[in-house]
Amino acid sequence: MKxxxxxxxxxxxxxxxxxxxxxxxxxxxxxxxxxxxxxxxDGSAVYDSEYREVGRWHLTEAPSA
Length: 65
Hints:
This protein is an alpha+beta fold. It has one domain (2-60). The chain is built from two helices and three strands; from the N terminus they run E-H-H-E-E. The chain has helices spanning 13-16, 18-32; strands at residues 2-7, 43-47, 53-60. It has a three-stranded antiparallel beta sheet, covered by helices on one side.
C-alpha cells in the first residue's frame, strides 16, 4: 500500500504558518488513523485550524515494481 497526503499551502491560515499548520495536520490525522481500516481506498479530507478543507489523504495499492 501507499499512503498519500496532499495539502494546498498557498492560501489561508496554512499560507501564513505552513510549518505550524502542517505539523498540526500531521499530529491530528496521525492520531485519527486508528478509526480507519487502513485498506486501499480509505481516505479523508484534511482541514486546517480554521476548519477549511486544504487537502486529502488516501491509501492506494502500491505500484508494481
